[in-house]
Write a sequence for this structure.
C-alpha cells in the first residue's frame, strides 16, 4: 500500500541522515568530490526522498475519483506500478541520482534492481544499506555491481519492465531503442547530459557573472550534466568579464578533495585525462587558452588525474568544442553582438538541459526565458550559472537530447513517470 511505502521511504531518509558523513566520505574517496559538494549531495538526497514522499501524499497515491456518467457508476483513475525497474546510475552524483531513481521507482510501487557506477560501488553499497535498514521488504531493492556488460544484461532481461538511467546520451538512447524494440514499448526514464550555455550581456553584473560561471564550469571538475561549459559574452564587456573570470579561476585550489580549501579535485579516470589532452591539443591548434590547458604534474598530481581549470577563447564559432559534452573542467568563451543570435547559437546543440543568463535588463531576461531551449533556466545567480538544482525548488527536465520523457527529476511530475494509468469503472 502506498501509505506504507511513504513511511518506509521516510525511514530511509532518516537512515541517510544518520549516515550522512559515511556516505559523503565514500563518495569523496571514490569520485573525488570536494567536501562541500559531497556533504551537499547527501543533504540533497535526504531532501529529495522527503519531497517525493510528500508528493505521493499530496496526490493521495495517485488514486482519484472521476466524474460519473451515470448515478450507479463509480469511476476512478489510478496510477499503478510497472513491475521491476532497472536503475542504472552514473558516477558523478553517486548518492543523489541513485537514490532519486530508486526512490521514484519504490514509492510508485515497483521493485528495483540497482546498478551503481563501477566507479562508485562502495557508495552504492552503503546507500543500499540505508534502504535495507529502513525495513524495505526483502527483494524490493537488489544491488548488482558491474560495468556496461551488467547494464546491458539488465536492459535485455525480459523480467525488467522499465529502466531509469542517468548518464551519457549515447548509452541512454541505446537503452531507449532497446526497450522500444521489445514486442511492446517499455518505459525508459533517462537523463542524458548537456552542453549548457551561459549568456553574459552588456548589462550584466560582471562580478556575479564571473563567480557563477566559474562555479558551474569547474565544480566537480566540470563532471556534471548541468555544468556550464560554454559562455557567450557581449563584445563590449568581453575583455572585462574574461579578466574577472581568469582571476577567479587562478585562485581555485586544485588538489586532494579531503582538504577543506580544495574546490577542484581530480577527474574520474585515465580516459577523462586522455580526453582532456585531445581537447587541449585542438584548442592549441585553433584557438588559445586564457587559463589552464594542461594536466597538472608533480607531487600529488602524479598520483591521480588532475586537470587545470581551463578556459578556451578564439575558437571558430562552429567549433565542435562549443557543442560536445566533455565532462571536464573546460570552458569555451565566445563573443556576440546580438543576444537573439547568441541564444540561437547556444540552442544549436543536440542537448537542452540547463542555461543561464546575466543581465539587469528586463527585455533581455524575457528574451532568454522565452527562447532558451532547455528545461532549467537561471538568471543572475552567483552560486552557479547553470548548476545547483535542488529538490522541490528547481525541477530538472532534459529537453531534446538531454531527456526522453518531457518530465524532470526534483519536481512534481517525477514519481508518476514510474507508473501507468488504469481506469476503474464499477457499476454499483
Ligand atoms: C547531473 O549532473 O547528472 O543541478 C545532475 C545540479 C545537480 C545536477 C545533477 N543537481 O547541478
Amino acid at each position: 500500500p502506498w501509505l506504507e511505502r511513504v513511511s518506509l521511504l521516510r525511514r530511509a531518509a532518516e537512515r541517510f541522515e544518520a549516515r550522512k558523513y559515511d556516505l559523503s566520505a565514500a563518495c569523496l574517496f571514490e569520485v573525488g568530490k570536494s567536501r562541500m559538494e559531497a556533504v551537499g549531495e547527501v543533504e540533497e538526497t535526504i531532501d529529495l526522498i522527503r519531497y517525493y514522499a510528500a508528493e505521493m501524499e499530496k496526490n493521495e497515491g495517485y488514486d482519484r475519483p472521476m466524474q460519473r456518467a451515470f448515478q450507479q457508476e463509480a469511476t476512478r483513475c489510478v496510477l499503478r506500478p510497472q513491475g521491476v525497474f532497472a536503475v542504472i546510475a552514473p558516477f558523478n552524483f553517486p548518492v543523489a541520482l541513485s537514490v532519486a531513481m530508486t526512490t521514484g521507482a519504490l514509492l510508485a510501487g515497483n521493485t528495483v534492481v540497482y546498478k551503481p557506477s563501477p566507479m562508485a560501488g562502495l557508495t552504492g553499497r552503503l546507500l543500499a544499506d540505508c534502504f535495507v535498514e529502513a525495513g524495505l521488504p526483502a527483494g524490493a531493492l537488489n544491488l548488482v555491481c558491474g560495468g556496461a556488460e551488467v547494464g546491458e544484461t539488465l536492459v535485455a532481461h525480459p523480467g525488467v519492465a522499465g529502466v531509469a538511467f542517468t548518464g551519457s546520451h549515447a548509452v541512454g538512447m541505446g537503452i531507449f531503442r532497446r526497450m522500444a524494440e521489445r514486442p511492446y514499448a517499455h518505459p525508459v526514464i533517462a537523463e542524458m547530459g548537456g552542453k549548457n550555455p551561459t549568456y553574459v550581456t552588456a548589462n550584466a553584473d560582471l562580478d556575479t557573472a564571473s563567480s557563477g560561471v566559474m562555479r558551474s564550469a569547474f565544480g566537480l571538475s566540470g563532471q556534471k550534466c548541468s555544468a556550464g561549459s560554454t559562455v557567450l559574452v557581449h563584445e563590449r564587456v568581453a575583455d572585462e568579464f574574461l579578466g574577472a573570470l581568469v582571476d577567479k579561476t587562478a585562485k581555485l585550489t586544485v588538489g586532494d578533495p579531503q582538504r577543506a580549501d580544495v574546490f577542484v579535485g581530480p577527474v574520474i579516470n585515465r580516459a577523462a585525462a586522455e580526453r582532456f589532452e585531445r581537447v587541449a591539443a585542438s584548442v592549441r591548434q585553433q584557438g588559445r587558452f586564457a587559463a589552464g590547458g594542461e594536466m597538472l604534474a608533480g607531487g600529488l598530481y602524479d598520483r591521480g588525474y588532475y586537470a587545470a581549470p581551463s578556459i578556451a577563447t578564439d575558437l571558430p564559432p562552429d567549433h565542435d568544442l562549443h557543442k560536445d559534452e566533455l565532462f571536464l573542467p573546460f570552458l569555451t568563451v565566445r563573443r556576440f553582438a546580438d543576444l537573439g543570435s547568441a541564444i540561437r547559437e547556444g540552442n544549436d546543440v543536440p542537448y537542452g538541459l540547463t542555461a543561464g543568463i546575466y543581465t539587469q535588463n528586463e527585455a533581455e531576461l524575457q528574451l532568454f526565458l522565452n527562447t532558451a531551449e532547455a528545461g532549467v533556466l537561471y538568471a543572475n545567480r552567483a552560486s552557479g550559472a547553470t548548476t545547483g538544482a535542488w529538490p522541490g525548488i528547481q525541477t530538472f527536465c532534459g529537453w531534446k537530447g538531454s531527456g526522453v520523457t518531457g518530465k524532470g527529476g526534483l519536481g512534481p511530475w517525477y514519481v508518476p513517470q514510474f507508473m501507468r494509468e488504469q481506469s476503474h469503472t464499477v457499476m454499483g
Q: What stands out?
A: The pocket of 2-aminohexanedioic acid is lined by residues 92-93, 97, 166, 224-226, 387-389 (CB under 6 Å). The longest helix spans residues 35-58.
